[in-house]
Amino acid sequence: xxxxxxxxxxxxxxxxxxxxxxxxxxxxxxxxxxxxxxxxxxxxxxxxxxxxxxxxxxxxxxxxxxxxxxxxxxxxxxxxxxxxxxxxxxxxxxxxxxxxxx
Length: 102
Fold this sequence. Notes:
Blueprint (H helix, E strand, L loop, with lengths): L1 H21 L5 E8 L2 E8 L14 H4 L3 E5 L4 E8 L19
Antiparallel strand pairs: 1-2, 2-4, 3-4
């Protein structure tokens, strides 16, 4: 499932970049936060946008279990959020020794 989430997030990223270019945006802000099991992609641009919330009814993001919120008040403010189901019933601990500086 995580590979599919990565793929649809990347596709959404490219869609927003194309929207920014077509809308004459002068800048794009991108914030990707991954804290397992959650992933959130937030993108903003200051150009005209063709995006509307209903556009995402059939988008691969929602088909993969994500949610999308869109604000087009001044440019585009888009947030895509995924909650990946936990595959472990208990926390996973990693014990790794970090070398000390000499």
